[in-house]
User: Fold these one by one.
Assistant:
Number 1:
Amino acid sequence: MACDRKDIVLKWCGKVCAIGSVLVLLSLYVFIAGESLPIWWDAGILPLLLGKEWQPLGESPQFGFFTMLVSTLWSSLGAMLIAAPLGICCGIFLAEYAPGWLSAVIRTVLHILTGIPSVVYGFLGASVIVPWYERVLGVPSGESLFCASLVLSIMVVPYIVSGTYAAFKAIPLTYREAGYVLGVSKLYITTRILTPLAGRSMVSAVTLAFGRAAGETMAVLMLAGNTLTLPLTWFSKGEPLSALIALEIGTAGIGSRQYQALFAAGLVLLLFVSSINFAIYYCNSRGRS
Amino acid sequence: MGRICLWGSGLVVIAILLVIIGLLVVRGGGVISWEFLTSTPKGLYLGMEGGIFPAIIGTVSLVAIATLTAAIPALLTAIYLVEYGKASPLAHVINFVIQAMIGIPSILIGLFGYACFVVTLGLGISLLSGGLTLAIMILPTLVVLMRDALQAVNDDYRLLGESLGVSRRYLLQKIILPVASPHLLSSILLAMGYAAGATAPIMVTAAVVMSRGSVSLLNPVMALPFHLYILFSQHISLERAYGTAVVLVLILLALNLFSLYLRNRYGKRVAFYD
């Protein structure tokens, strides 16, 4: 192909930008790891991860993430418990059952749902679901990991639906035709033939949604109750890692122990979410080859 | 039984959106007025009375800085990935990193922005810090959307160009970019919506409860999502929080639907969403 001087300039501009973008994004890891390095070194990895006390401002400050880690797991796994069945059903419905117009309507609805910012979800959850929860259960304050999960599940359902939908649409028509020829029902074809074929993609869609739920901040900040006690049940209050960072980073003195500990919490969350993403990427690229 | 579950799940999704919109309209619709949109927050606790004008201006400036900073590098990166570097090892690495970065929680982008812009570069809590942080947040999304927009252009154009012996740059400038432009614009609108709604990153890098005077790069700003958070969490005014939420959602809805329209109207394939 012909190549003039402007072409070479454009190519190199593109290359520089591409490498630059990657470097900027990688520096995110470097900064978060770098700012937290001193406290990992001094306090040790295990005491930080498994310590149950978080008292950044006491006589002898203590930094342990265990309580927040457990809160993060409760709220995001709980969200999956609600979102996975709903999202998978809805994805299958869109791909196999819904008439064309309804499918288009629901896809637009999902598009709009993904466009609503998390602070609005958190706000609506806290001003509608929490009072309702208080009335139903007769408890004085309804902020809890359960409420956080409920709202998180609405936020991540579109990802599960879109993953499931794409997986079912990718299955060749032949499988369905073979089923019809054998005279089995549509429900049988869907559940016994198509679902196993799409299983891998559905698992990766749910995992992706799990990663999103674990890192979500505003909704859990407004709904989970923000207490630093170890949450023993789904219905306890808790403070997930993301909420901890958002609440305290603004007031932590720059370079202080608390500041370093918050970056350490960020690093834990970053590695957790990244490992989920890498696992999905690895599975998808292996599945394709 | 199975059939009921499937239909039910579809209807639940529609119902969720209807409930959200209904709540916002019923509880927040009454607050919206010309005065609410164009005056500054007032009252014993700021925000109890008055409006949200500075927050609207703040959000618009944050989004403008983020988009202006991220769009050009993202476009050039996408051009490199699609037109020049196609199967090179470098392109594989870049695709991998960009893909992995999309899933990073926004609070961590905020944490990075705080460490990098606010502390290390000494920009302080400011419009510039917030805008740059948002730019980093939308960069990977923009690259992926723009890459897909360029890939969606029919390959015949590229073959034709090659057979006529014109350079890639000429082909891009005269054919591929014009054909892809609605799709590219749609990506930018989507990214703008993403930036406008983000709260966690600006909470630690740019936003304040009340800003006086004009908007300037090195001063903190008010922003709609943060204002909503403060109004609610400090128990200042539930009514005004609903009003703010309505304004925010309307802005995002307009951006998203226009983006969807552009993609469906001009795109070959029917768009799902991202």
Number 2:
Amino acid sequence: MSADPELAYDARGVTRVYGEGRAAVHALRGVDLEIPKGEMAVLLGPSGSGKSTLLNILGGLDRPSEGEVFFEGRALHEMSDRDLTRYRRDHVGFVFQFYNLMPSLTAEENVELVTEIARDPLDPGEALGLVGLSERREHFISQLSGGEQQRVAIARAVAKRPDVLFCDEPTGALDSTTGRAVLRVLRDVNARLGTTVLIVTHAAATAAMADLVLHFHDGRIAERTRNAEKADPEEIEW
Amino acid sequence: MVSPLDRKLLRDLWAAKGQVAAIAAVIAVGVMVLVMFTGLVLSLDETRRAYYERHGLADVFAPLERAPRAVLDDLAELPGVARAEGRIRGAGRIDLPGRALPVQAVALSLPQDTPAALNGLRLAEGSRPAPGRNDEVLVLESFARANGLGPGDRLSATMNGTRRSFVIVGLAQSPEFLYTTPPGELAPDDARFGVIWMPHKAVAALYDMEGAFNEAILSLQRGARAPPVLDAVDRLLEPYGGQGAYPLAEQTSNRFVSEEIRGLEMMSRAVPPAFLAIAAFLLYIVVWRMVQAEREEIGLLKAFGYTDAEVAGHYAKFVLAIALAGALLGALAGLALGRATVSLYIQYFKFPFLVFRLDPAAVVLGGTVSVAAAATGGLVVLRQVFRLQPAEAMRPPAPPDYSRAGRIGAGLAARLDQPTRMVLRRLTRQPLRMGGAVAGIAVGMGLCAAMITIHAGFERTVRLGFEVVNRSDVTVTFTHPLSEAALYRIARMEGVRAVEPQRHVPVAFRHGLETHRGAISGLVERPELFRALDEEERAVPLRADGLVLGDALADILGAAPGDVIEAELREGARPVLRLPVAAVAASAIGTPAYLELSALNRALGEGFRASDALLTVDAAQSDALVQALAEMPFVAGASSKAEARAALQELMDSGMGTMRFINMALAFIVAFGVVYNAARIAYAERARDLASLSVMGFSRGEVTFVLLGELVVVTLLALPIGSAVGYGLTLVIAAAFSNELYQVQALFSAASHGYAALVVLAALLVSGLLVRRDIARADILAVLKTRE
């Protein structure tokens, strides 16, 4: 049972089974992985391969059926609901394919939603500046385009200065131009703030900008690759 | 072959089964109340009619002092009269072993045993007295049962001053005595008032009525009107000491039955609309939510070529399915409950048989009204279906626009945290929908407030009647009006602390087109033991030159202070007085009219006379004293207030009054249903926002705040409005519960409305906890990963 605090994540033999008996679905069938702090990792694979399930377990939204998961040496698999909430509140940011912003709040207020409860947040204006939306902070969600909405979602996720940023298909609903802009923001967050970034996607080209690429297949990690050189989002083929 | 849309319909209904059941239940309750009460009213009416008809209950009653039997022929000759019979009626007292207080009774000459006879009896047990046996009697069944008497038992009674012993040979039921009331009291009491039927000869001998009668009973020809007959009878009987003929409608027992049935009828009109309105509101919000959630499906269907009408029809079927299920369930429950309750009522009214009638119109009406209510709720939403363009519908919906709502109270918002801003902007963005939620909860609150107020009103009636208005311990009724000497005798008896005289004179009141047969109560100028009170329970001074009317009588006569009332006294020289209304007093019990005692006596051309005396007594000697009083020759009856109070309480807890418990339970259920539904809908609409907050690390409590904050504001807004709605409902329901016997007042009571508010807040708390549990269980990921 190792728990290396230098690793952002250290997981051993993680399985996740939904349902019971004949109806049981094995989403993860024994995953081991180590993700060093400050790296950008891309989890790649077809839908149903288990990558999102793993992301949820690492993000504290779900628990493994078996196996151990450590975040900076702390055992996530043993945490209570209350502790997991605490963990998400203090350490983790999420970005989803469908932005999930609060339509009743402005862009800036959406960010403030997080900064109000965070221990050491960025200034909301600064977070919006990071995603290039300083001009639009007074706008309500209905007044923003899809790409802008996703950037607000990223600003909201990074504003608490999370240790880890989880992105589940962040560009899934976007066209190539706006998609690239979003990826650039993610790279900047990783590079400038040192945030560990985990991206789940089935767009293989995205892998080129990561430090670490994990290929999922049928609930297992089928292949791990390390990029000696990370590509610029601008160069990524869409 | 079931079309795919219909299969979708079935699955949609199944998926929303909780809410479907809740709404159908509310509709069902409305329809149930309607079907049950109308069925009850119809059945009771029909049973009463059949019972009266089968036993030839008279249409007109004419008490008098004494008339030779030959007068009956003259009565039968009067236009409109079908049959006239004379009978003998005498007051008596029954001594029951094991019962401290003697029981008042009336002795009646036995009606002939022919189908044509008026006021015929139904023999429940035993047989009629054998010919020639003057010591054999029939006793009213309800009285016998209440006192454990049966055929073969002996009965000892004092009649016209003589003590006699009888053998009970049979128990009889009579449509004339469904309710029996001890003299001087208002509430019926089976145990404390006996009716004895004796052979004509026996009763004639006892009361010196050989060859004569002292009460005429008449049946009318089909289609004949009562008022001219009453006038003719009064004129004919005047020389024989006629005390005023009255129609069946004013006969004591029948009047109580009518009042109860009328109360049920009013209830059937007041309650169902509230329930159906709530159901319409619930359907509206559920279908609204559904159409929102299924935009994409709607677009898809339209893209496939389904017409607007077909798609709208699909959602209309959803609404109608719930409405019809509710209506059907309600009709069945109403029938079942109606049948069950009707048998209770049969016992309560002592009907010997039951004619169960269902009003098909009520079922049809219930069905139609609930479908209409449901459709109103649903149709508003269906308009949206028509407006959706397929292409637009299939795109994910644009985020709702809060830019206008956001500007409202911007200054204030700056000082609030983000979750609070979310709550406020939701409230201000859709004022109509929030208004709907407020209205729904307000009706729930109103129902509770009304029912609790009514409940408190019942308590108040008993308290006012027996503690505040009447402060005596014992009421003594004399056989005839007496002078001061009788009062002095009573005052000297052991255990008597204070004596206060009263005189009750039967009166026919007239004001405009309204008439009422009642009595004037003569009270001393500044009474201590029995007082007329105003709304604030302060004593109203009695007047020699004007009447103080109880509010119930003032309502019946439509009279206000200053109006002149015509009062025809039915005693002595039968003077007709024209008296102004001096004041209206709060009367919780009966329909009293008060006049200063000496003025009343003067009007009758008499000196001091009292027909009753009120006493306060030493509690320890009360029973012995009542016993001694009852033995006195000039005393017709002596009753303790405790017994009269218990009788009224019993009456309110057993008949129509029981409905107040049922109504209160229903009101609580509905209030809870509305609040819970509002919470569920709010949750369904906001699942996504809440899941996002959860993912961001907001605690369960913080997430719940965002959801319930809105509901709390809505509920708080609904409370004052609900209070106003409740007051309105109270007026209607109080009128339904009130009758000539007792009145339930629609007084606004802060406490009752406070309790109602607590009920609604408790519903909010429980709903909040239930929804909070769902928040904890929710699969936040599933919510977040789906497109809305």
Number 3:
Amino acid sequence: MSTPGSQHAARTAALVRDVWRQRSLVILAHVAVVILVAIVLYPVMLVCKQAFEPGRSLALSASPIPNSVSLDHFRDLFSARGSHDELLFVRQAVNSVVISLLTTIVGVALSCTAAYALSRFRFPGRKAGLASFLVVQMFPATLLLMPLYVILDKLGLLNSVVGLVLVYSTTAIPFCVWTLKGYFDTLPRELEEAARIDGASPWLIFRRIILPLAQPGIAVTALFAFMTAWNEFIMASTFMTDESRYTLPVLIQSSVGDHVANYGLFAAGTIVTSIPVMVVFYVLQRYLVGGLTAGAVKG
Amino acid sequence: MSDPRGPVVQRQLRDFVAAAIVALAIATAAFVAERNAELADHQLDLAARAMQQLVATRTEVPSAHAAIVEPAIASSRHPFLRHRRAFDGSGSRPLATGPDDKLLYDAANRVERTGAFAELLPDGSGRALAGKPGEGKQIVVVVTDPGSPAPFPLLVIVGVLGLGAALAAAGALIGRRAARVGTFAGVASLAIPAILWHSPIAATAIALVAIATALAQRVGLADRIANSLIRDRVALGFLAPAGLAMLVLVAAPFIIGIVLGFYDHHHGTWTFVGLSNFGEILSGGGRALDDPLNFWFILGVTVLWTACNMVLHVSIGVALALVLSRKWMRGKGVFRMLLILPWAIPNYITALIWHGMFKGEYGAINSLLHAVHLSDVSWFGSFAAGFSANVITNTWLGFPFMMVVALGALETIPRELYEAASVDGASAWQRFRHITLPHLRPALGPAIALGSIWTFNMFNVVQLVSGGKPGDSTNILVTDAYRWAFERGDRYGLAAAYATIIFLILLLWTVFGTRIMRGKEDA
């Protein structure tokens, strides 16, 4: 047993050591995060530089600061014309917006109802249904192209907005259903019980209780469905035969094809296309954490 | 029950209606097939007669436009334009302006190239197009007017349905065994029109439906299904829209995709080859194990690819989440906003950007390496470099997802737990190991399971960054299958077999990974 005095001194020394360790750790953590942020931002800044610097070839220096600034690439992008002299960019932007919004609406509506059934009801085939929503995620989407092409052809939905929206919605459904089902599971059932005792129909309960409560989860689902449609180009370029029906990703991807590469145009297109997604993303991101993990974390 | 016969007849008719709907669908398919075949016969016959009569008597047959076409002559002013003259019932004219002239011109070209042919136009109009060599270098071609198909025989169907319903009801009124006989006879009566339409297959199928319905009644299955439909009608109603959409646009292509794996595609014709596609893939197609086209080599690359990515995504994501959730961290909100930026950028754009950065001797990455006096790397010149380029890109776009999931999970940990542990003298590692990790697991488990499936099938990054370079060595299974389908001679069957194998691998991985997933599945 040591004396109270020496004990006190030792404790102070340990405390000082701890504070120093803590402080250096804090500084180290900040430095590490700043470096990572730099790595995250660097490609984005390069793209901005490329977009605002004149010239169509690839930037040949590592500096993300442009040497001169012009809006040529943006002007080229907005004024590109198709074979019928229509403004290609405007056409394809409208296509993208319409298709993405419709996909969001259809996808979210279908997923919400399905997730509600899977979360709140017990019926034969429920487990199989849940599993099948997960299992279909595993079949590589790229290789569903051929069968889907045949089916859309038979349904007369090739080269049509409806066809593409249906395909995108169904692609998004499995993930949306799983996320939403997880979210619905975390909602308290007392309100529903009370409503049921008061004689509310399941549809009323779904519309007036579940949907308002589940807004964060639905927001994330909507974001996912929107991004599925907004970012897809392989199906869009396969199922749409008409240049004026392409979506923006098809335009951007083709601007850096093997034969003609205009990196300035590509960069400008990239910026214009990414901005709407980023806006939606940042508006909804406060829901992202809760919505995505609610199903997994309980308690 | 006051009158036991009422419900019996009701149940009987319920089963009859359900079975009759299926039988009707089969019968209708048989009718449509028969009608189409008849129409095709009629139109092709008309086309043949029109050509014959034009050659023999120089006159036209009603509702068909035949023409004798001269060989093509290059235009004197524009040699790339080739003219043809045509004689039909009304005289000689250049093939240029008439409504069907384009069809006739192309038909003549086709006869010159591949010989005589006769077919229905694939536009669903029911018009026939035919052509055959005529005298000398002349060609006879014909296009018919649209044919009118026979109308759907509504009266026959209604009559047969009534007869069937009567049979089924009569059976139910007589007794239990007779009820089943009645069901069978009632449903089977729908096979009569199918026989009329020369479709033994449809008739057999309808008979099988009838037998199945009677058997289902016998073992009480029909009642159970009906009860379940009534009891769970609300749940099934909510599920139906999504279920239907999934059935048509996910399940159907999925099944077609699996079936195509048993066929071989060659110049537009499909032949059944059994398991030979799978054999070719799993045996490596006679290639050495280190050949980049050998399935096992690609599988190895894919597994390595998935493992590297998951380790990097999870470790970077969790580390960042731990740091960003600390009280002493400054500018948390800003850092978080900036760090999820890669997630917000469409992944094909990310891939194209990084491809540009890795590209060439003076790409951005190599310029950076020069700036810090390192020698540049030929990023698509060796497997290790190309593979790293893909992994770097995918990590850049993949870690924010894990970070966000981990942040969410960390928020749910009660602060008191850490304080209690500190009081008890737990080290930082012990606190991480026994408090943080157990709380992260239920959220990260499903995220990792889902992330690994996505990464395993991450087509965009591999296709757009390295594109398989050098020499196909950095392909993963999905991109290799894509190449077989669209770049190496349209081998759709082989690609479909690849897809099936990928699916089975992921299914196995999920089944054995259930332990990680259990956090999500409460069912």
Number 4:
Amino acid sequence: MGFRIQKLLSNMKVMSAFQRTLTYIVLIAALILIMFPLVWMVSASLKPNSQIFTYPPKWIPWPPLLSNYPSGLETLKFGVGLRNTLLITIPCVIGQVFSCSLVGYGLARFRFRGRDAIFVLVLATMMLPSQVTFIPTYIIFSRLGLVDTFWPFWLPAWAATSGFNIFLLRQFFQAISTEIEDAARIDGASEFDIYWRIILPLSKPALTAVALFAFVAYWNDFFGPLIYLPSESNKTLQLLLMRFRTTYTTDWGPMMAAQVVISLVPLLIFFFAQRQFIQGVVFTGIKE
Amino acid sequence: MFRKGSIKNRSSIQGWLYISPFIIGFLLFYAGPMIFAAYISLTEWPVLGKPEFVGLLNFENMLSDDLLWESLRLTIVYTLIVVPLNVIVGLFLAILLNQKIRALSFFRTLFYIPSVITGVAVSILWWTVFNTEYGLLNSLLQEIGIPAIPWLTHTKWVLPAFIIISLWQVGGGVIIYLAGLQGIPTELYDAASIDGAGSWSRFRRITLPMLSPVLLFTLVLGIIGTFQSFTNALIITNGGPSNASLFYVLYIYRNAWAFNRMGYAAAMSWLLFVVILVVTIIVFRLTSARVFYPGSTVKGGL
């Protein structure tokens, strides 16, 4: 038996070196394939339009045409766009975090008739294609005169409309041990106190993950602004990118520059909060 | 001590209070609109005008709208290819990454970046990559002797182009599968190796079953999401050439806002909902026998 195991282990080691190299090759190849559109985008953002489509592509433009950036941001109406995007994103993120954690907590810690039915409803909303609701919702907002305002974004955000986030938070809350809560309850703390002072601070990882996902989602949202924000002065950054494309030409260099700048925000947030992001993704995928 | 009745009641009311945002949200933004949508689909409704009740006319028109069925067909085909493909590729990459690679988090992060970056310009970027004359892809292919492929101008090639684009964001799945893989106890593999199981066998008998809940999860959510593909179709090809990339939601959007037929668009949305529901149920049925939930077997050590 010992000999068998030894032979097995030595086989595994030999395979391992070859396997390891092969693995690296495949991974690096996949990485190059996935990264090259982004690299091309940055590279194009630093070239004059005439040089962008030359072949073979010059990956590192020298000298880099930095003027694409100010020019791009100006066409983009960056100041206006940024203001609008933030005006939508920040209240909505706060709204989602706040309302979804309330609901998630209610589902995790209280027992009442119909609770499980509500949970099923939450899951069902995750599975519903948004197309079924966006036309009637649009008409309702239109009748209320709220098109071309930011209310169509704010209202749903504060009404816990993200089943995904509710689900994530509920799972997280459930996993917290109840000892601290019980102790606090005996000491006379109200339920809300417990929620606010104990559970929430303990749930920072999950809340951060929710906030990050929500931020990226709202920052990158295209369809919502497309239908609700017709006037230029209200458009978000994503929408304003359309300005680079006229019927005749596309202003490539500055457009790529603008996209690089717009993408930098979620990218930087992702870099600094990587672990929470990934934990969040993992949490919903794994804890069924 | 405490009267059981009062604690239960208090707990009950409080519970409902915490849930209330969702109740409001659900009624206002899900149930309400859905009921309203059912009504809208029975009308002829220009956006800024008055609705006109027309009964089942929209649904009748749908039956004879060839473009609608073509659009639905291509969306279904696209979804049924893209989702399993993404799962397989994602799983494959995750397995590679799981082999104790030194730069694991480096790869993982970079793979995930595309999921964080979307945008109109990224879509237009794809347009340039797939451009027939000077796109990067064709240039690369020509280097290895393959003639230029009319990706976005030929009806045969436009869907494959979109399928390739969909693989760009495979990183999201990679992260989930990686975490799932890391959760599989290595003793299982060791025991199997000692018993002489080869790697394929280990994959089929240990990895797949242990990952099956996660795989089902990403499969179902992937199907639901992919059916709703819209932005790339609008920006890259606007449904062309000759409607070969007229994804269903794009067609809904057009009917609602370009043709001003909200009623018809609402009816179309209901059809989409039913289709997604049916496909999801089929997927559940097909896989329920094979999904293994750990913890549901006999207790006791291995």
